[in-house]
Amino acid sequence: MTNSMTRTARLIFTLTLLGTSTLLGHSALAQSPLFQPLYEVLSHPRCMNCHTITDFPRQGDERRRHDQLVVRGADNHGAPTLQCSACHQDNNVADGAVPGAPHWGLAPLSMGWEGLSASQLCQVLKDKSKNGDRSLADLLKHMSEDDLVLWAWTPGGNRTTPPLSQPAFVEAVQAWVNAGGPC
Amino acid sequence: MFTIRVNGIAHTVDVSEDKPLLWVLRENLKLTGSKYGCGQALCGACTVHIDGQPTRSCVMPISAVGDKQVRTIEDIGNEHIGGLVQATWQELNVPQCGYCQSGQIMAATALLKDNSSPSDQDIDKALSGNICRCGTYPRIRKAIHKIATEQL
Ligand code: FES
Ligand code: FES
């Protein structure tokens, strides 16, 4: 009796695990393994908090609405007289409390990634009508050289960084671009 | 050594490159109208104009100022709109303790220079980073509307 119960319990446990991983597989895994590492970086809060689909940025790993209720503004750099640069300088402040990097601001709404699956994000990333008319080579350049992108790996304070190191990320982007940007 | 232009006058100060502009203004130049509230760009008490844009001087290192024009509360009354804002602030008795008010005036002046008839929403967006512990927000809003409707 006890034995068969244990067996049943184990079976249920295994099935649950399988079910969960199938679900996760649909929602979080990219179709192309080459895009998967990019997705893991791009969906990190250091990137996503300013690639929002809202008219405001977010902050923190919990991705709460940005303090002071600052807004996106017409040019993605805040309200006309409360610009992102009112607080965010070209560098993090000395104690790391306020992050900073050149041209601090939100990505345009067309580059908002919130709520997208990996393959959707991949498509949006490559779509020239949404990505600022960037070719795959331009994307590689942006993601490996742009000051604001690079900030994600030196965010100051106790902010977390994306799951891949910056050189590993550049390698992954390069491999994805070399393969023609498979989604 | 850094030379910065504050209220139209060049000042040379011998300070380390990461000294925040706020402390250069207050300690070195004795311009104490800009207040220290949080030191972390959270409250707006230290707001000055950098080339006309409200900026939190507590998080701007002196090395980032370069040849940009710094304008502080001490000089804002010499601008037409800055003068109107200060006069109306007095007329409506906007301040309570006053600690946040130089920042509020700098933010309101920049708003009215950019937008001569701001809506409540425009005011919220422009001043949401200027915190008033005394809760003078309704009077700030009223004063901005009064200037916009009667004088601009
Ligand atoms: S003292 Fe600068 S924002 Fe509070
Ligand atoms: S008047 Fe006291 S903090 Fe604003």
Q: Which SSEs are present, and which pair or pack?
A:
The complex is a heterodimer of chains A (183) and B (152).
Chain A: H1 2-28, H2 36-42, H3 45-48, E1 58-59, E2 64-65, E3 78-79, E4 82-83, H4 118-126, H5 136-145, H6 147-151, H7 166-178
Chain B: E1 2-6, E2 9-13, H1 21-28, E3 47-50, E4 53-56, E5 69-71, H2 73-76, H3 80-91, H4 101-114, H5 120-127, H6 137-151
Parallel strand pairs in B: 1-5
Antiparallel strand pairs in B: 1-2, 3-4, 3-5
Helix pairs in contact in B: 3-4, 3-6, 4-5
Residues 95-101, 132-134, 136 of chain B line the site of one FE2/S2 (inorganic) cluster.
Model description:
The complex is a heterodimer of chains A (183) and B (152). With 183 residues, chain A is mainly alpha-helical. Helix content of chain A is 41%, strand content 4%. Chain A is built from 7 helices and 4 strands. In chain A, a hairpin with a 2-residue loop joins β3 and β4. By secondary structure, chain B is an alpha+beta fold. Chain B folds into 2 domains: 2-75, Ubiquitin-like (UB roll), CATH 3.10.20.30; 76-151, DNA polymerase, domain 1, CATH 1.10.150. Chain B is built from 6 helices and 5 strands. Chain B has helices at 21-28, 73-76, 80-91, 101-114, 120-127, 137-151, and strands at residues 2-6, 9-13, 47-50, 53-56, 69-71. In chain B, α3 (80-91) packs across α4 (101-114), α3 crosses α6 (137-151) and α4 (101-114) packs across α5. The longest helix of chain B has 15 residues, at 137-151. Chain A binds chain B through residues 67-71, 73, 79-83, 85-87, 89-91, 93-94, 97-98, 100, and chain B through 18, 40-42, 47, 53-56, 59-61, 64, 107, 110-111, 113-115, 122, 124-129. The structure holds FE2/S2 (inorganic) cluster (2 copies). Chain A: This is Isoquinoline 1-oxidoreductase subunit. Chain A: Residues 1-30 form the signal peptide. Chain A: InterPro entries: Multihaem_cyt_sf (IPR036280). Chain A: Keywords: Signal. Chain B: One of its GO terms (molecular function) is 2 iron, 2 sulfur cluster binding.
